[in-house]
Design brief:
five-stranded mixed sheet, single chain
Length: 482
């Protein structure tokens, strides 16, 4: 197998360095969540799969609580995506120039750069699927059935990154049935591949089966997540397919899909990704779930554009401009965020700010209690970030044991005495009084930068007199949604 052009490796390294240069704003809210999950390793979780927590556990063993160590994961993931994009371009018949252009596109399309500036499941989901796509394209091109076990291994790994990869696995299944690949089903190789995939994903499925299929409940509530231009559900997803790659990115993704579907030798690849996008539409998935498909189509588009040789210079300039314009979202100094509410909220920048202050505010409420009260006090957050933040900063500020009923944090409840006192963060008074007989207002959280982020103005209550035993209360706090 030929090596990728040297330029591809330079592009990959440059992207990794640029990602590591975005650490000045501090940890993102989800990074605290994954740090907490790394302390509770499991074959599966409510809203993600085990690969990210395992990598964070390994990273923290090597680097401790270093943000540079944590961000090394998305930096490497982004670089791997660039290299895999070039390798797929080669399998699609692309020249060395096309491979370099595919790598360049995956480096500078804002979707693929901005999502690597924090550690999350999406940043690993794209390279995981690109690995599957690489093996699948090679299998389609060579018609070699012995590649099925390798495809099964890649699929198993992708499913251990995130369950949304199932949409793409379904797409591969549709492609097998709808194209001449179905003749391989008469051989043992596809079935061996399925066995390999199931061996890898089996423990995760077993965990879900013994935990009431929590992921299904989570998926059912996807429509409660963030909106795109005020649109949710299927409408928001469709709009995302245009917004996420950007207008310039569409110059690659549309020709890419057209190339794959028009080429009989590669049609199975096009069918697989078109079917995956339709599955996500039917499921009303979030727009960024389409990122792996967008990446593959952009690579195919790069091959198509380079082979035609038309408008390549204009497209390159447009890609660079589209890359440069959103850079303030990744590198904006804190002073910019203080003066611009809209900029702070764009690109989730506000979700990097104010977490030490939140921990300090809760600690201040906690330490004002009498010593005998502190001994039976817990903290309950309205979302998964709050207990993870309190635990992270517990060495700096005295904090009570904390938990949340939100998503996977529900799996890690704090120990509570029957006569416990609770500090509740982010709940309305009416919600508190449904669980406790008495609630006293203790203040509101506001970060010192006055950036109105996700938890801005969250009320903090001290609650006494639990109405239920804690096991019952915890079930009432359960909230599985995006």
């Amino acid at each position: 197998m030929k090596r990728a052009p040297r330029t591809v490796w330079v592009i990959a390294a440059a992207k990794g360095v640029l990602v590591l240069a975005t650490t000045h704003l501090g940890f993102h809210r989800d990074e605290f969540y994954f740090i907490e999950a790394s302390k509770h390793l499991s074959p599966s979780y409510v809203d993600f799969q085990p690969v990210v927590p395992v990598l964070v556990r390994l990273e923290r063993f090597v680097f401790g609580n270093s943000i540079y160590g944590l961000r090394l994961i998305p930096a490497l993931a982004g670089a791997v995506a660039v290299v895999l994009g070039a390798m797929i371009a080669r399998e699609l018949g692309g020249s060395a120039r096309a491979q370099r252009y595919a790598a360049f596109a995956l480096a500078v399309i804002p979707l693929f750069f901005l999502m690597t500036t924090t550690l999350n499941t999406v940043v690993l989901e794209t390279p995981a699927w690109l690995l599957v796509a690489f093996v699948f394209v090679r299998l389609v091109r060579t018609d070699d059935p012995k590649l099925w076990p390798w495809l099964g291994a890649a699929i198993g790994l992708a499913l251990l990154v995130k369950f949304t990869e199932l949409a793409y696995v379904f797409g591969v299944g549709v492609a097998i049935v709808a194209t001449p690949l179905r003749r391989h089903l008469k051989t043992p190789w596809p079935w061996l591949g399925a066995l390999v995939a199931f061996a890898l994903i089996g423990p995760s499925i077993a965990w879900q089966a013994t935990h009431h299929w929590d992921v299904i409940e989570f998926v059912r509530h996807q429509g409660t997540g963030g909106a795109v231009l005020g649109l949710r559900g299927r409408a928001g997803y469709v709009v995302s397919l245009v917004i996420l790659p950007g207008p310039v990115g569409l110059w690659l993704t549309v020709p890419g899909l057209r190339k794959l579907l028009a080429d009989k030798a590669l049609r199975a690849v096009g069918v697989a990704h078109a079917a995956a996008l339709l599955v996500l539409l039917v499921a009303a998935g979030k727009g960024y779930y389409a990122a792996p498909a967008i990446a593959v189509l952009a690579v195919a588009g790069a091959v198509a554009v380079v082979s035609r040789g038309r408008s390549l210079r204009a497209l390159t300039v447009a890609l660079v401009i589209q890359f440069v314009v959103p850079l303030p979202l990744a590198y904006a100094p804190l002073s910019w965020l203080r003066s611009s509410k809209n900029l702070a909220q764009a690109g989730e920048l506000s979700e990097h700010i104010g977490w030490p202050e939140l921990a300090h505010d809760v600690s201040r409420v906690y330490t004002r209690l009498r010593p005998d009260e502190r001994a039976r006090t817990i903290a309950i957050g309205s979302n998964y970030t709050i207990p993870a933040v309190l635990d992270y900063f517990a060495d700096r500020f005295p904090e009570p044991a904390a938990g949340s009923g939100h998503n996977s944090a529900y799996l890690w409840p704090p120990h509570a005495r029957p006569d416990h006192i609770a500090i509740l963060i982010g709940f309305d008074r009416s919600e508190v009084l449904k669980l406790y007989r008495h609630a006293s207002f203790a203040g509101r959280y506001r970060d010192g930068a006055h950036v109105q982020g996700y938890d801005w103005e969250d009320p903090i209550y001290i609650a006494r007199g639990p109405r239920y035993d804690f096991a019952t209360e915890w079930k009432k706090l359960k909230k599985f949604q995006a």
